[in-house]
Design goal:
Layout: E1 9-13, E2 20-24, E3 29-33, H1 38-52, E4 57-58, H2 63-76, H3 94-106, E5 113-114, H4 115-121, H5 128-136, E6 149-150, H6 163-172
Parallel strand pairs: 1-4, 5-6
Antiparallel strand pairs: 1-2, 2-3
Helix pairs in contact: 3-5, 4-5
GO biological process, one term: methylation
Domain Methylated-DNA-[protein]-cysteine S-methyltransferase DNA binding: 95-175
GO molecular function: methylated-DNA-[protein]-cysteine S-methyltransferase activity
């Protein structure tokens, strides 16, 4: 059932790493949020209200969400290695958006990149910390694979979903971080 076309449609789905809140606009998937418990969901939905200026609509059967739900299910089942979803980038801008777009298109399944390496890819080789901040602001984790960004010594680095979640995602993809030098 398609509801109010103005606001983002959202639902919560179970995954291999716990409950995820997914939201999509008419442009595409706009957010994926980890640990989708009631308090987390309310905070994410409030953020969508203020940043998009529209009321989110709980619409688990929405056509906007059908393909993201299907593709995330296939990813966690181990049968999808590359997402082919329209994305709504309206929750990021500037340098973070540039970094996230490079990450989405340039770091394939089963590989990792260092924060500094990703900074160099966008022409800012000294901006490893800014890349870390961009990863922390990623509104589309898993689909835009910030879990694939690791420290140059092979350490996991940080992760908004928690380090155990990052480890599980990397294990799913058959990668455990190795030193990049």
């Amino acid at each position: 059932m398609e509801s109010d076309a103005r606001g983002p449609h959202w639902t919560v789905v179970e995954s291999g790493i716990g409950a995820l809140l997914l939201a999509a606009t008419d442009t595409g998937l706009v957010t994926v949020a980890f640990h989708a418990r009631p308090a987390v969901c309310e905070a994410v939905l409030e953020g969508l209200r203020s940043r998009l200026g529209a009321e989110p609509v709980h619409a688990p059967d929405s056509a906007r969400l059908a393909e993201p739900v299907r593709q995330l299910g296939a990813y966690f089942a181990g049968t999808l290695r590359e997402f082919g979803l329209p994305l709504d980038w309206s929750l990021s801008s500037g340098f973070p958006r540039e970094v996230l777009r490079e990450l989405a298109s340039g770091v394939p399944y089963g590989t990792v990149v260092g924060y500094g390496g990703l900074a160099a890819r966008v022409g800012q080789p000294g901006a490893a910390q800014a890349v870390g901040a961009a990863m922390g602001s990623n509104p589309l984790p898993v689909v835009v694979p910030c879990h694939r960004v690791v420290e140059s010594d092979g350490g996991l680095g940080g992760f908004g979903g928690g380090l155990e979640t990052k480890r599980r995602l990397l294990e799913l993809e058959g990668v455990l971080p190795q030193p990049l030098f």
